[in-house]
Batch of 2 targets.
Target 1
Amino acid sequence: MARKAIWLFVLLLILTPLLSGCWNRRELNDLAIVAAVGIDTVKGKYLVTVQVVDPGEVASRRGSIGLSPVTTYHETGDTVFEAIRKMTTVTPRKLYFSHLRIFVIGEELARKGMGEVLDLMSRDQEGRTDFYIVVAKDTTAQQVLNILTPIEKIPASKLYASLEVSAKSWAPTVAVQLDELITNIVSPGIQATLTGIMIDGDPEMGSKRKNIETPETPTHIQYKGIAIFREDKLVGWMNEEESKGFSNITDRLHSTVVETTCPKGGKLAIEVIRSKAAIKAKVKNGQPEAEVVMYTEANVADVECKVKLTTSQTLYEIEKAAEAVMQKHAERAVLKAQKMKCDVFGFGDAVHRAAPGYWRGNKEHWDEQFSKMKIRFNVDVKIRRIGTIGESFLNDLKE
Amino acid sequence: MKEKKEKQPQTSSQNLKEQALKEKSIMASLPDNLELIRQQLGNSSDIVIRQVGLPGEIAWAVVYTDGLADKQLVSEFILESAMLHDRVKEESKHDPASISPQLLASNVLAIGETKEISNFGQLFTSLLSGESVVLVDGHAAAITAGTRGWRDRGISETLTETVVRGPKEAFTETLRTNTAMIRRKIKDPNLWLETRQIGRVTGTEVSVMFIKGIAEDKVVEEVRIRLERIDIDGILESGYIEELIQDETYTPFPTIYNSERPDVVAAELLEGKIAILVDGTPMVLIVPALFVSFLHSAEDYYHRFDISTLIRILRYIGVFIALFGPSLYVAITTYHQEMIPTQLLYSLAAQREGIPFPAFIEAIMMEVAFEILREAGLRMPRSIGPAVSIVGTLVIGQAAVEAGIISAAMVIVVSTTAIASFVFPSYSLANTMRMLRFPLMGLAATFGLYGIIIGTFAIVLHVSSLRSFGVPYMGPFAPLIISDQKDAIFRMPHWAQVTRPKLMNRNNKRRQQKPASAKPKP
């Protein structure tokens, strides 16, 4: 009896995996790996564009036969999800979103409000929320995703990599992921920002294979400017200098180039190697105030003038000049934001931390308060190294 | 169970006959005795009966088995010494009856090992194991002389447990040689040896070897009891004994260790384990066995401790790969693609383009093909070896990938797994891993990583429940014994191994008296 029961149990145990039927099994070659998603709005509907990778074209060792490494599909729908599912009528395989690298929002949609489309991405269980979100500037997401790029065969990977690199070493771009974006949208003390992506050249040309056949690509895609959002609506753009200032104030600056003038004219570039910024807020006489303390360490990178680098006096002067430039960038960024009444820096959060009582009474109309807020800067630049040579050989030129 | 009881009477009547013969005393009449021997052995041609004496008055005879007994010994030290012995010559002329077997044994035979026996059971045992039997007319007793000497393979280098540094010799098929090899390593009077014959028909000699005072008495007693319980017609290899005495039959894990290296056996004896040597095989059983000992190589103790430890860790990684390699690949590529780095995913997906089979079928095909190759490599005649391996490499490695039947990544996974399964010093554990790999692959294909975790749980629960002669199999991990960690994953320097493993010893724990005395002075 006991023996029969054991055998029955073993039989059931063996049958369980067989009968379960591998319900969620997908082979790698059943997936259409989506590298990028773009969403635009067209006549009140969503136009969803997906960039699907053709792995055979990307990773094959035998050399590609000249097909496009990616394919884009687009479809309209009343909701994003509907459009995506509708796409199965054109895609050969089911779209697979886990390896999404970049999410492009069309400028028009961004101006109308992008909140609705973000919900799907954060709700879907298939998604891995480590992709970056950018806004198509002066163009549509669909067009951006149609541009072919050289070297990095998959345009989405190119977008992903160059955003990461430029945010780290050039600064006027921000690499924003979904969680941060949603937090910033809903938080009253800070507004959201996204980097803009532009098409430089003819979009029609960029979608042809010809685009990557010549050393100089006729059309390329480039990050430019930072978009300022009020809640989920785009309200304006910051230019490059403002963007640098923005990165610096929000402590996103890892490394960048600061261009200053030499004491006796000419240009000199320093490379920021370490930077730290903190916003200190307080409420004085019922008015909010903030001080931004920025501490930056830099190396001399590029001397294009005659200057005696090996004296501390010169270095001190360079430091001062760099401080002035950095402060100017930051001031401009703040000015722009104040003009738009959009606190993208998180001064609101700083006030919240410093004076919770004041914040409770004023958070409803913080935008107004922010536009009138007094903000001081305390910039400190320290030159650490001057590179592998001492004096510039330019000094020896007779001219 | 019932059937066995019904059969009992039949066999017992036969048993009684055999029993009667065994206990039959040797008769006084020499011709009668010889006749009985001839009859019982069916006049086998390899039994040599040499009768000595004047024609018509045969005084005594030597019986031995040709091939098992050393002919030179028999002729030089039994026949020659007896025939030329003055007193025997003298007496045989006058009073042949006065030559007693005892006289022969004590005074005449120039053989080291002699024994007086009185019944036919002992006579046949001695005769068939190579000893010579001397029977004297008129005396109801016989003398056996130790003339064992047959052709054997000789001590050769170990084939299954090779080392770079350390002794190269391996056990042989001859029990006595094997015991001698251990004795040569442990010259201690406490190294005890108990020999018994097991196997109704084969009468195989099985020796239990242990160091009195280090080995736990209870375990020794348990080994005796379990060996005593064996009732089988033949023991041809130590695998028979292993299966008959192990704690748990229905387990894929080996609970008895085996080795063909005398140094390994000596080391285990010193830790308080018990060796079971079986005549006719170089594989010596060691009980109780721990899971960790299957991952220890003799060489771990001969190299410096740091490299030994690292190599042990490498082996544990090998275990992990051998067990989980293909199943992890199947689970991740069919269920958890989001876990693969993006670039790797593209490359894996590209490799899978056009592969007609699901990853699981692919993996099973490759694994089965590999197992077939491996088995073929073991069984086929040596001379065709290269042909098979070339065909195997070409078919599996290259043609299958180029034909687009198997993806290149799968070939890498399966071959890595295959290589990883060869890092085990013990072949029996490698077989276990080989066996468990397949159900794990099934689980991975049906439930993904979740299935692998279920399988792992089942395996861990199972091994934790195993015992080998009362010792927990997973010790010193479960139960966790901190002091025994010195020789589990890590191999501490010899001067730091002051005590013997706690699991094996309760009374004689110390290996060294003063822990620091052996430590090199700075």
Target 2
Amino acid sequence: MRATVPAAAGTAGEPAASGSRRLTDRVFRIRESGIIAVLVVFVAVTASIQPRFLSSGNIQFILVNTTVFALLALAETMVVVSRNVDLSIGSVLGLSAYVSAGLFGQVPGISIPVVFLTGLGIGLACGAANGLMVSIGRVPSLVVTLATLYIVRGIDILVVGGNEVIAQTLPDGFTQIPRAGLGGVPYLAIVIAAVIGAGAYYLRSFRSGRELYAIGSNPDAARLAGISVGRRVFTAFTVSGAIAGVAGVLWAAQYQTIDSTAGTGYELQVIAAVVVGGVAIFGGSGSAVGAAVGALLLQTISSALNVLGIPPLWIQAIAGLLLLLAITLDRAISVRLLTSLRVRSSGVGT
Amino acid sequence: MAPDVTARRWLSAAARWETGLAVLLLLIVVLGAAASPQFLTTSNLFNLLVTSGEVAIMALPMTLIIISGEIDLSVASILGMSSALLGYLWSIHWPMLAIFAVLVLLGAVAGLVNGLLVTRLGLPSLAVTIGTLALYRGIALMILGPKTISNFPAPYNTIGVIAVPHTDIPWSMAIFVVLAVISGVVLHATATGRSLYAMGASPEAALFSGIRVKRIKTILFVVSGVVCSLAGVLWTFRLATAVQNNGLGLELNVVAVVLLAGVSIFGGKGSIGGVVLAVLAFAGLANALLLTNFNQEATGIVFGAVLLISVFAPNAGALWARLGRLRKHQRPVRPARQ
Amino acid sequence: MTPAAAPVLSLRHAAKSFGAVQAVADGSLELSAGEVHALVGENGAGKSTLVKMLAGLHRPDAGELLVDGKPVALPSPAAAQAAGIAVIYQEPTLFPDLTVAENIFMGRQPLLPGRRIDRRLMRAQSAALFGRLGVPLDPGRICRGLSIADQQLAEIAKALSRDARVIVMDEPTAALSAAEVARLFEVVRTLRAAGAAVLFISHRLEEVFEICQRVTVMRDGRQVLSSELAGLTADDLVRAMVGRQMPERTAGERSEPGELVLRVERLTREGVFTGISLAVRAGEIVALAGLVGSGRTEVARAVFGIDRYDAGTVAVSGRQLRKASPSAAMAAGVGYVPADRRQQGLVMDMSVQQNVALASLAGLRRAGLVRSAAERAFAADWAQRLRLKYGRLTDPVSLLSGGNQQKVVLAKWLGRRPALLIVDEPTRGIDIATKAEVHQLLVQLAQQGVAILMISSELPEVLHIGDRILVMREGRLTAEYSHREASEEKIMAAATGQLAVQAP
């Protein structure tokens, strides 16, 4: 009998406190590592069917395509953990991509860092506008960023006015940014990984980072605890916007042809990656690393379906199905966690 | 009994949003008429109504869903899926009536999947319907691929451009009016409607009052699916084109209309009257911008701004006070750091 | 008063109005170091408003607040904390996704060089705080799923970590079991010994006499009594609170139970409760006693169809109920007044009238449409029968006092003329006068032939109106007593397991 339920029997025998610690820790590690495991299994299965999947060219392709996506996932994570959402990042990315890359054509010889700063500035401005309206206006972020999604895209369309940035106007040093690399691993991917790592570390180990989780976990309690909720939320949106601005410049370097539709509809894909990565859609839990891996997983899936010779027309449907599966799986894990905590809690009362 | 002053005041508070919307609508009409003599012509108004028919229709079930505390972001993908299937089945020579039957079923199944994932598995609808948004659009792509089907016969391909006999009302608007009346009665005058407000305002209290929360929500998603499928038919016939990306991104327009209508994104508040006014305001605005040669693609700026003004204007006083306080205490008091 | 005993905190002639409602007219309070000070009064007497002034949530319109003899203003919760005041609410507001240690140190985490959080030190300091309080709570555990008692302990640890000198406890015992109350009182004594001033708010006067040294009584927003507790009796306090003599209880004759209404057989939900068999007859009040967490509420939820169960049956009036369907239970004549009034009993945004009618809309329809005149008449009728105090039926129910809110929940279910009424903690957190009314109402209902299953953590209440008393412990029924043979000692023994396996 005991052998059939080793986990339950094992924890029941341990002293209550350490048993619970070990149990919750374990499940939490699963929440993080679960998505990594899914990624590994998925890669292994795909590679065993089609070894070409692990060619350096394909890996590079996946990584390059993931960079911008994962960067935006970091931005969205900061906002989502605080029980908000930023729907405007696709539009901000589009505006930043066009305006910054357009500088190469308008200002001959402009230096690449200035172009990046321009993108950053555009993103900062948009993010700060969102942040101000959400924190001082106390309007739900879904409403505010839905409005700015339209407004920023509209501004983009007016600025572009039927033109587009074409590859020929971009200097080689710029277009090589996503491509330069070491043995198939682009430098850019390494830099982005470091940025995401830093972001995750900030959210985990700095007061202001923890306060974002506190706000998302219980906004009223956060106010009672003396956390300046408005200021934290404002900062989260500003940083999110700034990251989207920089992501726009990288997008331009990668795709090179930019019209007024760049990044349209990207916001929902990014939110999907964040949710798949285990960030609770209503705030309070989840990590930036998880979200970035979520982005990598979604990108890997679409690439794998390609490599496996799945008809290209099926790919989006299958990706959608996998997305639903990932959400369901995450829910199943957190329900199990809650149940285990409740059983533990009722055991202590006696 | 003494006149119920507070009740009236409360009623007027509830009606204030609708009053504001009515003023906005009036403003749009006046400005539109001033900007262009064409604005108030019958043919222009007809055009104005036709082009916003599908969004208007989809906004109705969305209103009920948001009031009940959920959201459905897959509406435009269901529209696209329906349009794609319509095109495909017509291209392999199915009779139109059979196609309609299949499309109703398609919408119902699509909505049912949303509803079951939300109610039976307890997943947040925001996440679920982002997933089905991708899935349903993917299915549309599978059905039709890159093809474009446009050889629809006479009675159908004109439905988007002709009026209901003896009137100047386009078919899609007539359908909207009928659905709006039904939704209004259900929401404001039936026990089910009351239940929707209750479960949006307090899901647990609704459950403890014996309201069949799961069943009602599932039915709402199914209804939304069917209505969106119907909107897909209208869209296809109006543009006389079935293509997989029909209505791409329209979900956010629908949500924006519903929010402009004063429906709380957190559930429990809103009215169908507000939705009707918001639909007309959006339609009027789009049309006025069209006549003034504003860049058509960029009208989003104006929509977004109107949406922002609509959420900020009713709270302008409180907002001003908060700004004042913020200026006074540049730094909020914080416990000393260690 | 000698200058040596200068109060740590004194609030003088504070006033606060909300619109036309004067919540506090003349509130005064003096707390000294090393004392536990009781604040009592009926609901609506202004206690909560007073607490919110101390918490920095409400600004008084008039009056002054002195801390250590110096006037202070508390414009925000942060200012109150900085002044050394900590408030422990009845249901603490923690961050459910974060660990206990993070909850304690949020915003004040110990830092490593580079302003990074020192997690190890934070955890060690938390463990040390719990050591001082003498409670084994794991600092590394996330707060979701903690019992209310443990959440309060986390809040107290937070107050300790801030070196708070004034600790306000707003009805901390309302949701606690007897064992948890005993543990809390140990902690309060520890705090007092360490020189803290504790303001203790409770409706349970026996607790006031057990733990407090001084008392302040409020009535209608004014301080009506402030004195040493020694020499006072519970009756004195009640008289001061109510301003009149309490009516004697009119429990009425115990009628002979009628037909079997509820029959629960071997009901089991794995890990929650096991093998529950019980019966309730028409005209009978069956009290379900036991500690919080013993599975009483869970059994009620399963009977009413909120939760699923794994085995067993529930039958009402001879017909077996479908699992997990509140609407089926309601159709069979079951009503359920849940323990959490604000979350489960009422839709706080809706009006009094809409809440009363919420469970009865099916009967107020013509041709599928709800007739608002009928709804209004229905609500007015029940409001009058239960002597509900309200402004207008269209006012949001959130404007009513706790006791009147509970009456709305009762009206909601009585309006369905239930055969079986399940009431879960029917008088939790409501004032003494309304409490007596609720008791009287339950007895009357039983006399009219309604079967009543009452869950209660208050033993006097259980003994007072229960015809039969069932006791649960760790998910099982452990004892059954008739009204005559029951006593507090027997019930506590069965609830805590000291009864062992003796046959009753």
